[in-house]
Every structure is written in C-alpha cells, then in structure tokens.
Predict the 3D structure of the following.
Amino acid sequence: MQDVEDQTLLSTPTGEETEALIFRDEEGEINPAFVADVTRAIEVGDSERLRRLVEDFHESDLGALLEALEPEDRPRVIELLGSAFDFTALTEVDDSVREEILEELETQTVVEGMRALDSDDAVVILESLDDEDKAEVLEKLPAIERVALQRTLDYPEESAGRRMQTEFIAVPPFWTIGQTIDFMRETTDLPETFYEIFVIDPSGHLLGAVALDRLLRSKRPVTIEEIMDDEPDRVEATEHQEEVARLFERYNLVSAAVVDEENRLVGAIMVDDILDVLEEEADADIKALGGVNSEEELSDTVLYTQRSRFPWLFANMCTALVAANVIRLFEDSLQHMVALAILMPIVASMGGNAGTQTMTVAVRALATRELGRANAWRIIRREALVGILNGLAFAVIMGTIAATWFQTAQLGLVIGMALMTVLLFAALGGILVPLALNKFGVDPAVSSGPFVTSITDIVGFFAFLGIATFWFGL
C-alpha cells in the first residue's frame, strides 16, 4: 500500500507534496523537504521512487543532494540508482565526501561508473582513491582506457596534464572539410564537448587547429590546411594549472591543445575545467588569508578542522605576546593615566584593519600577477599616501572624540599622532610584507597575516604609549 501511495505522490503531487518535490527554492537554496523525501526513499529501498525524484538532475545538483544527505545514505543513492547514477556528480562534491563515498562502493561499481566519464572527470575519481584501490580499478579497465588514464596520472599534480581530457578530434592537414564533417557524423565515440578540431602530422605533432564555426562556414572541397590556424593556443602538459588559467583569462579562450615536450598532441583542456581551477585558487587564497588550511571543507570532521586551524592561532598568540611585552614597557604610564588603557585598543584595532585591507589587495594582486617589479614602487607609494590621508582623517575624528570624552585637548593630539603613525606603517607593512615573502618564494597568502599583525600591534602600542609618555612626562 505504501508503494502505491508513493507512486501516486510522484504522479500527481499537490500542495505540500509539490513543495517537497522542488529541489531548490527561488533563492537557490536546497529544499529540506525534498531531501527528506529522498531520505525516506533510501530508507525503504525504493529505487524507482528515488530514480523519479532525481531523473532530470544536472550533475551539479546531484552532487549537492549527496552533500545534503547523511554520510551513511550517500553510497545507498548510487546503489539504488545503479546505471542511472551519473558518476560525474562525484566530481561536484567536496574531496572528503567523495573519498568517503568511494570507500563504501564496490570496485566494479566504480569501474562501471568511470567508463561513462570523460577522462578528466575519471582522473578526479582516481585521485580520490588510495594507491591499492586505484591500482585495482585501473586493472579492471580496458587496456586502452587504462593506458590513457595512467599517462594522465603520471603528470604532476595541479598540472595541465591532470586537467586535460584525452578525448579530442585530430585530422591530417590534407583532409577536406567534407571528409572531416563526414568523419564526425560517422564516428560514435566523439568527445562529449569540443570547440575546435586539431591538425596533426603522422607522428602526432600539433600543426594547427580549426574552430568549429570556421569549419562549418567553409566549402566541402576546401582542405583543412587552407583554413587552419597554424599558431593554435597550446599549453604544455607539465605547465601549472594556475598559469594555464591565467592564459585562458588573458586571451578569453574556451579550449586549448595540450602538448608534450616534443609538441605532440596529448589532450585538450576546456574552459569548464579552467573555471574550476580559478575557483579553487581563489578559494585557497581567501582561506589562507584567514589562516585556514586550503584543503579545509565544510564536510571535514571537528578534529581535522581543529588541527588545521591551530597553527595559525598559535602564531597569532606568539605575536600577541610580543605586543604585550611592548605594553609592559609603559606599565607606569598606564597606571598614571587610565585613559591610555581605554584608548589603546582603538589604535591597535585601526592599525590591524588598515593593514589587513592593504595586505588583501596586495596578496590578490600578486596571485593574479597584477603586482610585480614593473609597478611595485608605484603601488607602494600609492598605499603609503592612502595611509597618510586616512591617518590625517582619523586623527581629526578620533582626536576630537578623545579630547571631548576626557576633557583634554592634549590627549586628542596624542591619539591623533599615534593614528597617523600606525596607519602609515600598516599601509607599508600590508604591501611590503607580501612583496618580501613573494620575493623569497614564500606564499604571501599563507604567511603575511602574522607578520602584518605583529607590525601593526607593535607600532600601534609603541607609538601611542610612547608619544603619551613623552608628551605628558609620565
């Protein structure tokens, strides 16, 4: 009876039932009622109901659904859907979620799922397996597929070779447009997505490329050689994916040939893969600036997250101890004038925020190669001037507030001078520290924070308390 009711719900949903069958609301948020429906189907093992719930899902939405489910329910989705499950969805989930799911699946299930994937997506799945499972999966694949995937895995991590797909269309230069079109119509194993046809010699060396739009606008008797671009966009397989992403961004590419050190065509890299790279790099930079491990994900365990965040917090504690020792030098001044203790955090906070602003801009500019030796001094001068102008502005504002608050114009003058000093040093520290770290081969996104924080705290406390001690003769 329950199965009959379920089938009725799926065929004629109304009211709250209709709401439950909607995966995302108007704001794009996942509907908890839909997830609950899927969970119920999993609990009773109703594969037909589950299939009808997710049959029109894009792989991205299917991946989001997997992440929304409880860990023990995720492998069951794949088991219940069987051949209807699109393994591409596993490339859309967090690494830790993908690894947990793959650990629970039978090797044969993984093999069958991977065979329907493009090579670049299949590599993502293989990278998530330990060495033993990876070898077992590769062993069960047909020889041609196994060799192609193994060759891709032999390239360095985060290289173009790891991101490329080995499915591409390559033809000799003497073919005509008609021959090429007929070849594509008659071949059943063409790449799922492609934007250009590559031209190679008998040894596989890249000679050129023809964009699809140019191919389709040309007459059938015309040869490929006549219309090909003999300087096609290409990247080396060992080139770092971040450099490749910059090339795509700079020249608005949608695809590029991937060649080995001898200019033999080994694959193609597509814009959708580059978008993933850009997102990963931006995500890593943002996390690094906040002292978070670039590998940390929302699906990670409490202990893993705690361990990954501890080193940054420890570094900040050490810098705080240095700043505390600076304060200790002016212990007598603080005892004589309580107002200094009240205003001191304002100076440190303003300096810290100003330094973080400059550091964020500098680190991002270094990552995108917008900041380099050619314009470094101009940017340093600009940031210094910004620090001076902000220092003057906040010196007037905070000086007026302090003078009114504590009924002494001299205290307003002291905090004004301190703010001018700390905002200038914060601006210089925020730009010079990332530049120096970058020069010595240290990732500025990871290491700039503690140094800039130390500079702003030490300079802020020393400037404010030092000027006050001298001014008031404490």
Q: What stands out?
A: Residues 376-406 form the longest helix (31 residues). The chain has three domains: 2-163, 170-289, 302-472.
